[in-house]
Protein backbone atom coordinates (compact mmCIF):
# COMPACT_ATOMS: atom_id res chain seq x y z
CA UNK A 1 0.00 0.00 0.00
CA UNK A 2 1.27 3.43 -0.88
CA UNK A 3 0.09 6.98 -0.29
CA UNK A 4 1.37 10.45 -1.06
CA UNK A 5 1.06 13.65 0.97
CA UNK A 6 1.67 17.01 -0.72
CA UNK A 7 2.01 20.25 1.22
CA UNK A 8 -0.42 22.82 -0.22
CA UNK A 9 0.05 25.89 2.00
CA UNK A 10 0.42 26.83 5.67
CA UNK A 11 -1.00 23.70 7.41
CA UNK A 12 -2.97 22.31 4.46
CA UNK A 13 -1.95 18.99 2.91
CA UNK A 14 -3.37 16.93 0.06
CA UNK A 15 -3.37 13.20 0.71
CA UNK A 16 -3.55 10.91 -2.31
CA UNK A 17 -4.18 7.19 -2.05
CA UNK A 18 -2.89 4.36 -4.18
CA UNK A 19 -6.48 3.72 -5.27
CA UNK A 20 -6.65 7.19 -6.83
CA UNK A 21 -8.58 9.14 -4.20
CA UNK A 22 -7.61 12.43 -2.63
CA UNK A 23 -8.50 14.26 0.55
CA UNK A 24 -7.53 17.69 1.77
CA UNK A 25 -6.39 17.94 5.38
CA UNK A 26 -6.17 21.28 7.15
CA UNK A 27 -5.82 22.81 10.56
CA UNK A 28 -7.96 25.29 12.48
CA UNK A 29 -7.56 29.04 11.90
CA UNK A 30 -5.91 29.47 15.29
CA UNK A 31 -3.25 26.98 14.16
CA UNK A 32 -2.57 28.67 10.82
CA UNK A 33 -5.11 26.73 8.80
CA UNK A 34 -8.31 27.70 7.03
CA UNK A 35 -10.42 24.75 8.24
CA UNK A 36 -10.77 23.44 4.68
CA UNK A 37 -10.69 19.76 5.64
CA UNK A 38 -10.49 17.30 8.49
CA UNK A 39 -7.50 17.09 10.80
CA UNK A 40 -5.18 14.11 10.29
CA UNK A 41 -6.11 12.60 13.68
CA UNK A 42 -9.80 12.89 12.79
CA UNK A 43 -9.01 10.81 9.71
CA UNK A 44 -7.35 8.19 11.92
CA UNK A 45 -10.65 7.88 13.84
CA UNK A 46 -12.73 7.84 10.66
CA UNK A 47 -10.49 5.22 9.08
CA UNK A 48 -10.69 3.03 12.17
CA UNK A 49 -14.46 3.44 12.32
CA UNK A 50 -14.75 2.55 8.66
CA UNK A 51 -12.54 -0.51 9.13
CA UNK A 52 -14.54 -1.93 12.04
CA UNK A 53 -17.92 -1.08 10.48
CA UNK A 54 -16.90 -2.88 7.29
CA UNK A 55 -15.99 -5.94 9.34
CA UNK A 56 -19.20 -5.94 11.37
CA UNK A 57 -21.43 -5.62 8.29
CA UNK A 58 -19.46 -8.31 6.46
CA UNK A 59 -19.61 -10.74 9.38
CA UNK A 60 -23.33 -10.12 9.95
CA UNK A 61 -24.13 -10.71 6.28
CA UNK A 62 -22.07 -13.92 6.27
CA UNK A 63 -24.07 -14.98 9.34
CA UNK A 64 -27.23 -14.42 7.29
CA UNK A 65 -28.38 -11.54 9.47
CA UNK A 66 -30.78 -9.17 7.69
CA UNK A 67 -28.91 -5.97 8.54
CA UNK A 68 -30.21 -2.83 6.85
CA UNK A 69 -28.18 -0.09 8.53
CA UNK A 70 -25.20 0.38 10.80
CA UNK A 71 -24.00 3.61 12.37
CA UNK A 72 -20.97 3.81 14.64
CA UNK A 73 -20.55 6.76 16.97
CA UNK A 74 -16.97 7.22 18.12
CA UNK A 75 -15.76 9.13 21.15
CA UNK A 76 -12.05 9.54 21.76
CA UNK A 77 -9.71 11.13 24.25
CA UNK A 78 -6.15 12.18 23.56
CA UNK A 79 -3.13 12.72 25.77
CA UNK A 80 -2.71 16.28 27.01
CA UNK A 81 1.00 16.46 26.14
CA UNK A 82 2.88 15.61 22.96
CA UNK A 83 2.66 13.18 21.41
CA UNK A 84 -1.09 13.62 21.76
CA UNK A 85 -1.91 10.00 21.09
CA UNK A 86 -5.36 8.55 21.59
CA UNK A 87 -5.70 7.24 25.14
CA UNK A 88 -9.35 6.13 25.05
CA UNK A 89 -11.63 5.27 22.15
CA UNK A 90 -15.22 4.11 22.47
CA UNK A 91 -17.25 2.68 19.59
CA UNK A 92 -21.04 2.66 19.94
CA UNK A 93 -22.67 0.57 17.19
CA UNK A 94 -26.31 1.13 16.26
CA UNK A 95 -27.30 -1.83 14.10
CA UNK A 96 -30.67 -1.92 12.38
CA UNK A 97 -32.28 -4.84 10.65
CA UNK A 98 -34.99 -7.46 10.56
CA UNK A 99 -34.91 -10.31 13.08
CA UNK A 100 -31.36 -9.43 14.16
CA UNK A 101 -29.89 -11.55 16.90
CA UNK A 102 -28.06 -9.51 19.57
CA UNK A 103 -25.59 -12.32 20.13
CA UNK A 104 -24.63 -12.24 16.43
CA UNK A 105 -24.07 -8.48 16.58
CA UNK A 106 -21.95 -8.86 19.71
CA UNK A 107 -19.96 -11.67 18.07
CA UNK A 108 -19.33 -9.57 14.93
CA UNK A 109 -18.09 -6.62 16.99
CA UNK A 110 -15.84 -8.89 19.04
CA UNK A 111 -14.35 -10.55 15.95
CA UNK A 112 -13.66 -7.18 14.38
CA UNK A 113 -12.00 -5.86 17.54
CA UNK A 114 -9.94 -8.97 18.28
CA UNK A 115 -9.13 -10.43 14.86
CA UNK A 116 -9.98 -8.43 11.75
CA UNK A 117 -9.82 -4.64 12.14
CA UNK A 118 -6.14 -3.85 11.64
CA UNK A 119 -6.62 -0.18 12.50
CA UNK A 120 -8.39 -0.82 15.82
CA UNK A 121 -5.99 -3.58 16.80
CA UNK A 122 -3.06 -1.27 16.07
CA UNK A 123 -4.57 1.59 18.10
CA UNK A 124 -5.38 -0.78 20.98
CA UNK A 125 -1.63 -1.06 21.62
CA UNK A 126 -1.75 2.56 22.83
CA UNK A 127 -5.38 3.33 23.69
CA UNK A 128 -8.04 1.69 25.83
CA UNK A 129 -10.71 0.70 23.30
CA UNK A 130 -14.23 -0.17 24.35
CA UNK A 131 -17.38 -1.13 22.45
CA UNK A 132 -21.08 -1.31 23.03
CA UNK A 133 -24.07 -1.63 20.77
CA UNK A 134 -27.78 -1.38 20.37
CA UNK A 135 -30.00 -3.29 18.00
CA UNK A 136 -32.98 -1.68 16.34
CA UNK A 137 -35.46 -4.20 15.00
CA UNK A 138 -37.35 -3.19 11.88
CA UNK A 139 -40.87 -4.49 11.69
CA UNK A 140 -41.09 -6.91 8.74
From TrEMBL:
It comes from the Bacteria. SUPFAM superfamilies: OsmC-like. Coiled coil: none annotated. This is OsmC family protein YhfA.
Amino acid sequence: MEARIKWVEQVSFLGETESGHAILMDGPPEGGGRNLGPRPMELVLLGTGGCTTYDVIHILKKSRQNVTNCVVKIEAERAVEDPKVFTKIHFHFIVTGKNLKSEQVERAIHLSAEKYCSAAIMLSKMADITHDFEVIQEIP
